[in-house]
Design goal:
Two copies of one chain form a homodimer. By secondary structure, chain A is mostly helical. A three-stranded antiparallel beta sheet of chain A has the order 1-3-2. In chain A, about 35% of the residues are buried.
Chain lengths: ~150, ~150
DNA sequence: TATTGTTATACTCTATAACTATA
DNA sequence: TATAGTTATAGAGTATAACAATA
């Protein structure tokens, strides 16, 4: 018999903080995401980079980083790993030699296609927790918060 | 002159994913949080642990981890660091020697009090982006998503 | 056998600072 | 001078597996 296990945990207001609520929701999304893409070895961030590179062939490394809220050094780590795995290619820009243009490789495109199908299932599973209208409201509020 | 910089980045649907929207919002919250608690050396997670320990003196390490969505090993890393810094104390439970009861130290309580004041400002700043009613809606939807 | 904590290990994200090359 | 990328370094969160102690 354990008194403590039976006792409800007091949150002392922690669970009323926006920061806490978002962190928990992101944690739940992350775990479901990881389960959904098992075996593909693609994190949320890596997928986002691949996704943007495929949608914007030749996009600058820094632009992708800025779009995803990462600084240059963080972006380097990510792109370096993707390049090592042959999922993206880096090319020097002809118009500005400082730039590195990112391109999706065939392997990258194939892997992204597989990931997309898995993510669709994952998104569907999470969205089922809300109505369509609630989903739109949530997205809109999250966008305002991030902006 | 750079064509690319002038061109709007195509998101190709990425920004319509719930996973993406939450990640971006969490990123924004995290950056604002870190700016708010500058100098205290307390991450969101560390603060959450301190907060729960203070609200539940003698709480089990595993319970805190479960409440925050962390597994035992992850929790160990966190508690270990807090203990090293003298912010929490670990004691063997008398009723169940497997358990470790967590207690806040004076230094931990003092630091948490300072953090709380900073976090209140941070929360206020972020909440200003929404109306009161929107804030409540957002919290409720996030809770559903995490549950 | 099941549970709690622990350790070792590994990977990812994150950022700062200093550096190179280019504009 | 300013910008884009790079490298080195460091801290933090995350999880898996194997292990010890205890129930």
């Amino acid at each position: 018999m354990d008194d403590r296990a039976a006792t409800t945990l007091q949150f002392g207001g922690l669970d009323e903080l926006l920061g806490y609520r978002i962190r928990r929701a992101q944690g739940a999304m992350h775990r479901d995401y990881m389960a959904a893409v098992t075996g593909l070895k693609l994190t949320q961030k890596q997928t986002a980079v691949l996704w943007l590179v495929e949608a914007n062939p030749g996009v600058g490394q820094g632009e992708v980083g800025a779009a995803l809220g990462m600084d240059r050094a963080t972006m380097m780590t990510l792109v370096h790993r993707l390049e090592e795995r042959g999922l993206v290619a880096r090319r020097r820009s002809r118009s500005d030699a400082r730039r590195r243009e990112l391109h999706s490789t065939e392997a990258g495109a194939r892997l992204l296609a597989r990931a997309r199908r898995r993510i669709a299932v994952h998104e569907q599973r999470m969205r089922e927790k809300l109505s369509d209208s609630e989903f739109r409201t949530l997205c809109s509020l999250l966008r305002r918060l991030a902006g």
